[in-house]
Automatic annotation (TrEMBL):
One of its GO terms (molecular function) is ATP binding. It comes from the Bacteria. Residues 16-247 form the ABC transporter domain. Belongs to the ABC transporter superfamily. This is ABC transporter ATP-binding protein. PANTHER family: ALIPHATIC SULFONATES IMPORT ATP-BINDING PROTEIN SSUB, TAURINE IMPORT ATP-BINDING PROTEIN-RELATED. InterPro entries: AAA+_ATPase (IPR003593), ABC_transporter-like_ATP-bd (IPR003439), ABC_transporter-like_CS (IPR017871), ABC_transporter_ATP-bind (IPR050166), P-loop_NTPase (IPR027417). The keyword Cell wall biogenesis/degradation does not apply. Keywords: ATP-binding, Nucleotide-binding, Transport.
Length: 265
């Protein structure tokens, strides 16, 4: 049991035990995830980091009920992932913004809520509030193609947050952006997370992004993906840009780098 799990306020949201995913294939089945034991607590910001093809996206998809498992167990809020999905536990942000180019920014954020048949006026209000939270007030009537990549990704985040998911799943949401924009969005996401105390599961290739954002970093090995190390971050919950230059940040980044290296052996 980790230090975080020993805390009496710790509430598990995601629990996986001996989880395996094997993708069937005509020639050779792909063993994507091997014996994954993971507990994610309420309000944690958990990053999954590891080399390409190690199963990060697969793990995210399993938790979100987008991928079946081969063996083991997965519980989300004491439910199966499928029950959790029906209870609308998830918000999902992909690497590409996946916005509808022929709908305005406001309409894009409203769409999932309209599909849920919520009253239009209420939906409009929620969408406007969420856009303001990601710093896009005044852009409601623009079309996605009129925005930069970083702004489009902020629209995706507003859309995912609109129906107040219990867990926000983010699959390399800033992977396609330049470093300056990425650092800026990291800071915005950190502030949003701090304010809302939402549980986030975040896939990244970037050590500094994982260190800057996470309360827990899950380091994975090359295929078949297994967990090499689970690192509880010693950094304070509230983080500023200056933290990136601190000794604690540099040490933690080195710890992640070492774990990645060990996992590759
Ligand atoms: N639907 C599928 N059918 C067969 N194999 C798959 C399928 N989806 C993923 N895989 C394989 O499973 C392994 C894990 O893939 P996954 O996308 O989860 O890795 P990842 O760590 O997210 O990779 P990346 O960092 O490159 O996005 C890879 O070898 C991939 O080719």
């Amino acid at each position: 049991m980790s230090e975080a799990e020993a805390n009496p306020h710790f509430r598990p949201v995601v629990k996986t035990k001996a989880l395996n995913v094997i993708y069937p294939a005509a020639d050779q089945p792909v063993h994507a995830l091997s014996n994954i034991d993971l507990v994610i607590g309420k309000g944690e910001f958990v990053s999954l980091i590891g080399p390409s093809g190690c199963g990060k996206t697969t793990l995210l998809r399993v938790i979100a009920d987008l991928e079946p498992i081969t063996s083991g167990t997965v519980f989300v809020n004491e439910m199966s992932p499928s029950e959790a999905r029906q209870a609308r536990a998830y918000g999902y942000v992909f690497q590409a913004p996946t916005l509808l180019m022929w709908r305005t920014v406001l309409e894009n954020v409203m769409l999932p809520l309209i599909i849920q048949r919520r009253p239009v006026q209420e939906v409009q209000q929620i969408a406007k509030e969420q856009l303001a939270k990601v710093g896009l007030q005044g852009f409601e009537d623009k079309y996605p193609w009129q925005l930069s990549g970083g702004m489009q990704q902020r629209v995706s985040i507003a859309r995912a947050l609109g129906f107040e998911p219990k867990i926000l799943m983010m699959d390399e949401p800033f992977g396609a952006l330049d470093e300056i924009t990425r650092n800026h969005l990291n800071q915005q996401l950190q502030e949003l997370w701090l304010e809302q105390q939402r549980t986030v599961v975040f896939v990244t290739h970037s050590i500094s992004e994982a260190v800057y954002l996470s309360t827990k970093i899950v380091v994975m090995s090359p295929r078949p993906g297994r967990i090499v190390d689970i690192i509880d971050s010693p950094l304070p919950r509230e983080r500023s840009a200056a933290l990136r230059d601190s000794e604690a940040f540099i040490q933690l980044a080195q710890q992640v780098r070492d774990a990645l290296k060990d996992g590759a052996l």
